[in-house]
């Protein structure tokens, strides 16, 4: 078996007295996608910044393709690509000019720059807009150009820090398809995201970060199985009623209010029997819910159980650093 493309061992990074990353360890196998999940402030972006040599770690060790990110950052930069939360493109240049500029900055030969620009404009469906200023591009087009820019030097390792932030569902799916194609071609991807459907679809392995520490890791299926509980959801359609539902159901399991305070999720060990107990508890409390649903755990449920809060992709880090 090939050595892991990324190895992180006991990584530590502080900002003042705040431990943004506190002893994190994980590996990413070559040609796979690792999904790095966690709430705002968990440390995801700080880890990406360390691995991409933007900032130095305070302790621990991290390597990319066997290259130490602290000892030889320049060598690391030659084998990686990075697409961050916000499209890093020059709005006054055309799409093609952006790609050619990146090619020159990464010291590619002119002939290869033109070749890669042609390939990437075609691959990301931007040929029709290649000679237009980027300021005329839609959000989805800018994202695709940003990802194309991260691939100009054909990096074997790609870091994607919440790459689909702000995209509409169609553009998000298009970008997922592109990422899938890259991995099929052998690229290793580290992906941070708060869209759990994204992690469920793309990630071969998932690492959940909370408070700067790894709290769980495994495949999406493994994480769901470890939760080991059935979810009964009660639709209250009213925050005050939801609080009454939570109080009535708490003796039966872990009851959590979500969906703007209008829905209660109850984690139970035995779904069918628990459903009967739920109906009885609601009836005893004089509560008539708008709806009841029983289902198996999702990655959202795992995230909530591990971090104590729901995934909120709308809540962006104001500074761009999720420390």
Protein architecture, described:
- It contains eleven helices and 14 strands.
- The chain has 323 residues and is α/β, with parallel strands linked by helices.
- The chain has two domains: 6-224, Rossmann fold (3-Layer(aba) Sandwich), CATH 3.40.50.300; 228-307, Alpha-Beta Plaits (2-Layer Sandwich).
- The chain has a six-stranded mixed sheet with strand order 6-7-8-3-9-10, sandwiched between helices. Strands 2-1-4-5 form a four-stranded antiparallel sheet. The protein has a four-stranded antiparallel sheet with strand order 12-13-11-14.
- It is elongated and about 75 Å long.
- Mean pLDDT is 88; it is low at 314-321.
Q: Strand share of the residues? A: 25-35%
CATH architecture of the largest domain: 3-Layer(aba) Sandwich
Query: What's the total helix number?
Result: 11
In CATH, what is the homologous superfamily of the largest domain? P-loop containing nucleotide triphosphate hydrolases
Most strands sheet: 6 strands, mixed
Number of domains: 2
Quaternary state of this entry equals: single chain
Helix percentage: 25-40%
Number of strands: 14
Which strand order do you get reading across the main beta sheet?
6-7-8-3-9-10
Report the top-level CATH class of the largest domain. Answer: Alpha Beta
Which overall shape is indicated by the principal axes computed on the Cα atoms? elongated
Coarse structural class: alpha/beta
**Elements, N to C (H/E):** EEEHEEHEHHHEHEHEEHEHEEHEH
Mean pLDDT: 88
Q: What distance lies between the first and last C-alpha atoms, to the nearest angstrom? A: 34 Å
Radius of gyration equals 22 Å
């Amino acid at each position: 078996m090939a050595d892991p493309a990324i190895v992180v061992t006991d990584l530590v990074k502080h900002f003042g007295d705040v431990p943004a990353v506190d002893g994190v360890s994980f590996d990413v196998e070559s040609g796979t996608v690792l999904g790095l999940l966690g709430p705002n402030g968990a440390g995801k972006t700080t880890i990406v910044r360390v691995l991409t040599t933007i900032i130095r770690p305070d302790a621990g060790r991290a390597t990319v393709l066997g290259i130490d990110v602290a000892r030889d950052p320049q060598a690391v930069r030659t084998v990686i690509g990075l697409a961050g939360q916000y499209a890093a493109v020059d709005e006054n240049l055309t799409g093609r000019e952006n790609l050619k500029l990146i090619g020159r900055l990464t010291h590619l030969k002119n002939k290869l720059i033109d070749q890669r620009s042609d390939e990437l404009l075609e691959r990301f469906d931007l040929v029709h807009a290649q000679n237009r200023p980027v300021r005329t591009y839609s959000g989805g087009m800018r994202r695709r150009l940003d990802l194309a820019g991260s691939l100009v030097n054909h990096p074997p390792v790609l870091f994607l820090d919440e790459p689909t932030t702000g995209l509409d569902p169609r553009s998000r799916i298009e970008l997922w398809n592109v990422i899938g194609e890259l991995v099929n071609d052998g690229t290793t991807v580290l992906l941070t995201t708060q869209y759990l459907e994204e992690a469920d679809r793309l990630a071969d392995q998932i690492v959940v970060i909370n408070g700067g520490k790894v709290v769980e890791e495994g495949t999406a299926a493994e994480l769901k199985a470890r939760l080991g509980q059935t979810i009964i959801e009660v639709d209250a359609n009213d925050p005050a009623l939801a609080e009454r539902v939570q109080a009535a159901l708490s003796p039966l399991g872990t009851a959590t209010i979500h969906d703007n305070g209008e829905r209660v999720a109850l984690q139970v060990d035995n779904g069918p029997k628990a459903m009967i107990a739920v109906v009885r508890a609601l009836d005893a409390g004089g509560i008539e819910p708008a709806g009841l649903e029983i289902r198996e755990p999702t990655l959202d449920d795992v995230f909530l159980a591990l971090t104590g809060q729901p995934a909120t992709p709308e809540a962006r880090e104001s500074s761009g650093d999720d420390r």
